[in-house]
Amino acid sequence: MKKVLITLDYNPNSEIVVNKGHELVKLMNAEVCLFHVLSEMRYYGMQYEPFMGYEGYAFPVDFKIQEEFVKVAKDYLDKTAAHLGEKNISTHLAEGDTAKMILEYAKEWGADLIVMGAHHHGTLEKLFLGTVASSVLEHTTIPVYMVPTGENRREAD
To answer: Which residues form the signal peptide (predicted)?
Structure first.
């Protein structure tokens, strides 16, 4: 395995995912890419007339906010790369459906392994929304290394 894609979200537990993924990368002497997905930004700029008594979208949106979201996300990736303390770490930012973007970029980049966190969600959230991890696992052809990040995870000593 020569290329490892480490996926990150804004959850503080991402540090656990990055550190465990980086341990694998060092053991395999592999190339690493830190990857983050922004939700589809186009939805933030849509304007609708009030519907069902809801007026939440009937206001003008500052389109510069998209630039701010991108800037913050790039800064997050850059600081995460710096946290690992190596020069040859690449980063990639995508926009869209998280699971779909992970799968598409992993294939495009030629990843041999995807590293992602297994966040613990409530039963209703899993039932109605599913999880990014389960969607990736259901559709991937690339091996996935799941890092437990919940309260019940075992600490490695």
So the answer is: none
